[in-house]
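User: I'm putting together notes for a lab meeting next week and I want to include a structural view of one of the chains we've been expressing. I don't have a solved structure, so I'd like a prediction I can at least talk through. The sequence is below, exactly as it appears in our construct file.
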Amino acid sequence: MKSRRWCISSRDYDAGERVECTYIEIEQVAHTYAVVLSKPAWLWGAEMGANEHQVCIGNEAVWGRESADGNEALLGMDLVRIGLERANAAEEAVDVITELLEKYGQGGSCMEDESNFTYHNSFLISDRKEAWLLETSGKHWAAERVKGGYRNISNQYSITTKIDKEHPALREYAQSQGWWDGETRFNFSTVYSFMTTARIEASGSRYCEGKKLLKKSNGHITAETMMDILRDKDSGINMEGTFLTTGSMVSVIPTNQALPGVHYFTATPDPERSVFKPFIFVKNVNELKETSSPSYGADDPVKKKPRFQSKPDRKHLLFVKHELVAAALQSSKDKGKKITESMRKLEKDKMTEMEKILSNGIEEPDLLADLFTRSVREEMAVYGKS
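Assistant: Thanks for the context. Below is the predicted structure for the 386-residue chain, given as C-alpha cells.
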C-alpha cells in the first residue's frame, strides 16, 4: 500500500451530480472544501487529512462483536475524505460521516488484493476549538466530544460511558443481540468489543502505549512531541512488516482564527526514516507532482470486476527516491547516520520557519504556494548528496 499525498481545491457542483468513491457512487453536494490528503494510492478515500477550515480527520481499523464482512459500500477512508470535503467544523464532520454511514454502511476490502481484509472504523476529528472521537460497528456508532487534554485511537474501541452522540438504535440493537442487559450502565467499549475495557488496558497494545506517551507529555505536547511518538517502534505505533506505517501526519492548529494551520506530512513509509514536510492552505497551491501516484482511470484493476487481478506500479517520485535511501540506511551504519542527521536538520529548519508563521501569520501567501513541493525537492536533494 503506497502512500500518496493529494491536494484538492474547493469546487462547486450542479444539482444531481454524483461522486464515485472507492466502490460505490453517492450523491455529491453543492460545494466541497479544499483538502489535503494522505492516502493509499489505489483508493479514492484517505487515511488522514485536513481541510481549508482546519478540520483534521484520521481513522483506524477496529474490530468487535459484529462481523466486518459484507457487501462493498463506503470504506472508512472514503468517509474521512467525505467528512473533510463537506464539513467546516469537527462536529459537522461527525454528522456528515454518521449520516452517510447509516445510509450506505461500510464495507469492502481495505487492501489492494483479494484477501477481503475488512474492518470497522474509528475516527479522530478535530478543529480549532474541540475534538471528537467517533467509533463505529457496521451502521451503528457512538461519538464523544473532547474539549481538552489528549486522546488517541488505535485498533480497539475506547469510548466507554461518556457518549455525547449516538446512533438512535445503538442500545436497542446491542440488547437485541444479547450484548447488553438494558439495565447496567451502558459502556460502548465493553458492549461492542470482543474484550472488556479492563482487559484491553492490560494488554500492552498500541492504544495503551500511545496513551502513556501522550500522558508523559501532557500540557506541553508540541509538533516535535507528536513526531517522536509516531516514530516510536517499541510501542508498536510505528509499525513494521506486513502492516508497515506507510504515511504519517502531524497538524498544528492555532485557536486564533487569524493564524493558519500547519500540516506536516511524510508522504513516505516509516516516519523514523522520513522527513515531516509542512503544508499550509493558501490560494493557488501548486500541484503536488512529486507525491502524486500515477492514475490509471477506467483501466485501474480496482475499478474492473473481478477486482485486484493485477497490481500496477503506483510509486510516486519521492517514494522511489525514499526506497533507495532506506536501503542505504540499512546497509551502512555510518552512512545511515549521516543521512538521518541531514534529514532531521531539514525537518528542524522547516519547523523553525513554520513557528514564525504560526506566531505572526502569513505575510506573503504566494510564497507558500509551493511550500510542500519545495520541501520535497529539498528532501530529494539531501538524498542526492548521499
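A couple of points you could mention at the meeting. The CA atoms of residues 49 and 201 lie 28 Å apart. The radius of gyration is 21 Å.

User: Perfect, that's what I needed.
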